[in-house]
Amino acid sequence: MASSKRKSQNSSNSARVSRREQLEAQRQALAQRQRRNRLITALVGLVGVAVVVGLAVWGINANANQGGAEVPPHATADRQAISMTSTVTDSSTPRLEVFSDFQCPGCKGVHDVLEPVLRQAIDSGLVRVEFRTMTFLDAANSQIGSSNLRSSTRAAVAAACADFNGVYYDFYGAIYDNQPEREGDGYSDSLLRDQIPATLGLSGDALTSFQACYDNQSTGRFVRDVDEAADKDNSDGTPRLWLNGQDITEEVLTAANPANTLKQLLGL
């Protein structure tokens, strides 16, 4: 009899827990709809206030949504990454895949710590270093209120455009050097289009061609395809490091000296 009573109490408790979970899910869904509605209302209001300025930004974002078909020269054959291709082409060459999102604070932290090793790996020609840039934080950060919407995509497009000038990795690092302190504040078009190229020494025809690529979002389709492939292969978010198809993120980042650990794993 006591056992039956306990079972009844457990069932009742489970039902209450399940009901609370349902209510919480409904509350979160309602809050998300309200935030989305407030964002839409705010955007509609801004249209009437800043039409002239908005047209320029709209043009860039619209092009990015469609995406030009230009493929960066260092794109992998499957167009799923940009590869700082090794001079060694046999199957024994280590392959390091770096999954990142330019708005991800952790990705900046990892890049800052591992950058000397990544550069050594690229410069040595002994490692295939492939950058698989993701853009999922565009959606996650869209409700923060920043004017720099779709910063992950625009930054990835800019870096891919820079590959035509042979400065992809330098541009990649410069984006993280300029990452704002608050996640979601994003990157301005001026930073990506004008300031970073200037710091990297792009000028004349090189600068003009880069800016045309960025303005037209010529690498937009490539960036989208890279993101979709990375999202399919890697469900663990960013930052992630894969070596020869194996996830080494935890092994590297929990080590006493992450840079040395990665260096040893790469055989440098």
Describe the protein's topology.
Elements lengths: L1 H48 L1 H16 L15 E3 L10 E7 L3 H20 L3 E7 L2 H4 L10 H12 L5 H10 L11 H11 L4 H12 L4 H14 L6 E4 L2 E2 L1 H5 L4 H9 L2
Parallel strand pairs: 2-3
Antiparallel strand pairs: 1-3, 2-4, 4-5
Helix pairs in contact: 3-11, 5-6, 5-7, 5-8, 5-9, 7-8
Structural class: alpha+beta
Mean pLDDT reading: 81
Number of strands: 5
CATH architecture of the largest domain: 3-Layer(aba) Sandwich
What sort of overall outline do the alpha carbons produce when their principal axes are compared? globular
The low-pLDDT segments are 31-64
Number of domains: 2
Radius of gyration over C-alpha positions, nearest whole angstrom: 23 Å
Indicate the proportion of strand residues: 5-15%
Number of helices, where a helix is a run of at least 4 consecutive DSSP H or I residues = 11
At the first level of CATH, what is the class of the largest domain?
A: Alpha Beta
- The run of helices and strands is HHEEHEHHHHHHEEHH
Largest sheet: 5 strands, mixed
